[in-house]
Amino acid sequence: MAVWELWRQDDNGNRVQISAFADRIEALANALALESGVVHKQTYWVHGPSDPVCRTNRDLYRRLVREGEQMNAAGHSLDRFLRAWWQVSRPLSDQVRLDLDTVAAMVAAAGMVEPAPLRASWRSASFPYTHEPTTYAHWEAIVLSQIADLADFVDQGPLDKYAYFGVAAPRTAGCARALTTTWYNFDPNTYLECGAAGALGGWSEDDGIRKPLPGPHAELVNEREPGDQAIDFLGWDDLADLARCGQQYE
């Protein structure tokens, strides 16, 4: 059976194996979780077979749905997930593109770590809307905007059972955030499932999660189809679209 070893190099250059995993994504997630909390110059890496676990959009869709289900079962809120997702993303911010296993590991790591605390500055910052996110900064602006929106929802009071049919974020007039005010998803599972389905496709009717609408209906721009499609890498524009669809895709 294949094994992936997690290693660390400390401030003095000493190398030590920390643990071993039977799953490559779990090993990468643990490395990211540790690296995102490092203060000193410690380095973490995974040693083992380089063959990817996720090769297609469907592989990634199923993995993200699984992570979302686990976070829901653990009682994690969407706000907690987003603040943790932002935190574990920071060691990857200088990368232009990410392989699918790293994307899955980033989401899995967000379910492991204590999330970054909510910063008051996020709620008053300006996050101008852009139609063409291409860098880490654009993805970050969307996620921080969503964190600010969720804090505004909390101030307004508990959401009712109809919120999943669509509700507008109660933003202060003139507030500039990265996306429109409309929200449909308010927990990690629905956010990740809708985000992956809307941005990447890869879902199947056999999942029992979503079904094609019968009869004529209006399709979203660039709406993704079900089924498998091989993907080598995703850019921050793809992750920005995943975050957008996580908020606004039904």
SSE blueprint and pairings:
Blueprint: E1 4-9, E2 15-21, H1 24-35, E3 43-47, H2 57-73, H3 78-89, E4 97-99, H4 100-110, H5 120-124, H6 136-156, E5 167-168, E6 182-183, H7 188-200, E7 233-235, H8 236-248
Antiparallel strand pairs: 1-2, 1-3, 4-7, 5-6
Helix pairs in contact: 1-4, 2-4, 2-7, 3-4, 3-6, 6-8, 7-8
Oligomerization category of the chains in this entry: single chain
List the strand order in the largest sheet: 2-1-3
How many domains comprise the coordinates?
Answer: 2
* Helix/strand order: EEHEHHEHHHEEHEH
Spans of at least 5 consecutive residues with low confidence: 213-221
As a percent range, the share of helical residues equals 40-55%
Q: What integer value in Å does the Rg equal?
A: 18 Å
Number of helices: 8
- The total beta strand count reads 7
Our measurement of the CA-to-CA distance between the termini, rounded to an integer number of angstroms, reads 39 Å
Outline the biggest β-sheet. 3 strands, antiparallel
Task: Please state the overall shape, judged from the principal axes of the Cα atoms.
Answer: globular
In percent, how much strand structure appears in the residues? 5-15%
Secondary-structure class:
alpha+beta
- The overall average pLDDT, rounded, is 90
